[in-house]
Design a protein that fits this description.
By secondary structure, the chain is an alpha+beta fold. The chain contains 3 helices and 8 strands. Bound molecules: zinc ion.
Length: 165
């Protein structure tokens, strides 16, 4: 496994549509392992393949809604699609490809995704609150969409400072 460098906004790779994954082989597994390691190292909650320069429909999301004595774990989503959503949440959102920038984005509060796992098996998974936001954000990456396009406005440096107090 290796930490891969994260592509920053301005690179056209982040604006492209990703192709579906068709081969569930060692190369995919290595990509997913590297993405997870890169995600955990960066302290983020989600990472999409184009953010490490790979135009394939693969994302990793850190599930943080776990019981107090439970451990956070990474969900791998290959060729994911949102099949249902419910409710609404409005709040700050950021991205590892736009370090230090945050915007106010409204997302559904509950999202159900159908995807394939690293071996090609289909499954469904539900995300709530931050995880739902993350599913939407990462799936947007696969269509070349970055969160500022979804934001009602970006947060000012003053607001970001206030959040630290
Ligand atoms: Zn992002």
């Amino acid at each position: 496994m290796a930490i891969r460098s994260i592509v920053l906004k301005g690179d056209s790779v982040l604006e492209k549509h990703c192709r579906p994954v068709t081969e569930f082989n060692d190369r995919l597994h290595l990509l997913l392992d590297d993405m997870t390691q890169t995600l955990l190292e960066s302290g983020g909650v989600g990472l999409a393949a184009p953010q490490v320069g790979v135009l394939r429909q693969a994302v990793v999301v850190l599930e943080t809604n776990v019981p107090e004595d439970g451990e956070e774990y990474v969900i791998e989503l290959i060729n994911p699609e949102i099949i249902s959503e419910d409710g609404e949440q409005r709040g700050p959102e950021g991205c590892l490809s736009l370090p230090g920038q945050y915007g106010i984005v409204t997302r559904p509060n509950l999202v159900k995704v159908r995807a394939q796992d690293r071996n090609g098996n289909f499954f469904e998974v539900e995300g709530e609150a931050l995880t739902a936001r993350c599913f939407c954000h990462e799936l947007d990456h696969l269509s070349g969409v970055l969160f500022p396009e979804r934001a009602e406005r970006m947060m000012t440096p003053e607001e970001l400072n206030e959040d630290k107090h």
